[in-house]
Amino acid sequence: MPPRDELWPELPYDAWRETKDTLHMKLQVVGKVRLALAPMEPQWANVPLYLTARGLNSSPIRHPGGEMFDVDVDFSDHEVRIRAGNGLVEVVPLRARPVAEFYEELLRALERAGVPVELSVVPSEVADPIPFPEDTRHASYEPDWAWRFWRAMLSIDAVLKEHRAGFRGKTSPVHFFWGSFDLALTRYSGRPADPPPDSDTITSHSADAEQIAAGWWPGDARVEAPTFFAYALPRPDGIEGAQLAPADASWSEDLGEFLLPYEAVRQAADPRRALLDFLRTTYEAGARLGGWDPALTG
Could you say which of 34, 67, 78, 85 is the most buried, measured as most Cβ atoms within 10 Å of its Cβ? Predict the structure, then answer.
């Protein structure tokens, strides 16, 4: 078995913030390829990327011209590959350079592969977005930090899938949302929900079903540390007082979510058990207070 520091690597926020911010924008460019061509599905199921043994993948996409292709992100070789059903493969390196250059090279690679795509150029779900063709600010890329980010997600992906397996209702797959930059899993009660009246386009399509979600993100300006999260929508009354495990888990009133530091899981005697306990207790709190059918996990 690989050592713990490979399975659950250190990922201090300040040390890799610049690489994280640049990688976020580059993965948004990749994700918007799928957004541009995949048919709309409930809760935006048409847009995420998925973990692989080497990175992230778009899953197969049908081009309007009829060709099938996918976009593969490799964090071992640090490159993006466009792989078309016609046998063509185009490679775009994930090196340190501005997002604007990466964006232009990816568009050219798609065209050379016979699957040209017109993308939305404005990043999603970030403050003060810079259109990709103009983004010369985000240009950092340290391969070791990107590798650690992916290795952490590999371990988390396996535990989220274990948690998912015990549910008898509808669930999402474990998937990576490139807009919010998180790896997540959502369980659904089967009942519809009303999105908040002030919802934007993203929220109005994602919050229209009763759900309990959990996942992980590497931190941002709100929480400057890699962190696990869980929440229930609509938010049940009293959920903030739920008894949780492990002891480091807590409620954030600012975010309206349960949080658990990644470092607490990484340092636990059994990281898998600690994360499963967080997923179980946050789900139980949301399901009990939300009146979910107990048979969904019976």
Answer: 34
How many angstroms from the chain centroid is the CA of residue 113? 27
Residue 178 near residue 49 (C-beta atoms within 8 A): yes
Rounding to the nearest 10 degrees, give the CA dihedral for residues 256, 165, 205, 181: 60
In sequence order, the 6+-apart residues with CB closer than 8 A to the CB of 131 are 121, 122, 123
Classified as helix, coil or strand, 109 is helix
User: Kind and range of the H or E element at 229?
Assistant: strand 227-233
Dihedral of CA atoms 146, 148, 149, 150 in degrees, nearest 10, equals 90
| pLDDT recorded at residue 4 | 67
Q: Can you give the pLDDT at residue 199?
A: 83
Q: Which tokens is 109 given?
A: 């690679």
Two structure tokens written together for 122: 């404005």
Q: Is 4 left (phi over 0), alpha (psi -120 to 50) or beta?
A: alpha
Give the CA angle between residues 99, 104, 110 to the nearest 5°: 120
Instruction: Give the DSSP per-residue string, 137-155.
Output: S-----HHHHHHHHHHHHH
This prediction has a pTM of 0.96
Task: Read off the pLDDT of residues 7-42 as tens digits, 9 standing for 90 and up.
Answer: 999 999 999 999 999 999 999 999 999 999 999 989
| Spatial separation of the C-alpha atoms in residues 82 and 76, rounded to whole Å | 16
CA distance 70 to 182: 21
Encoded tokens for 44: 């935006």
| Furthest C-alpha separation in the chain | 56
Confirm if 207 and 224 have CB atoms less than 8 A apart.
no
Residues in the chain predicted with pLDDT less than 70, given as ranges, are 1, 3-4
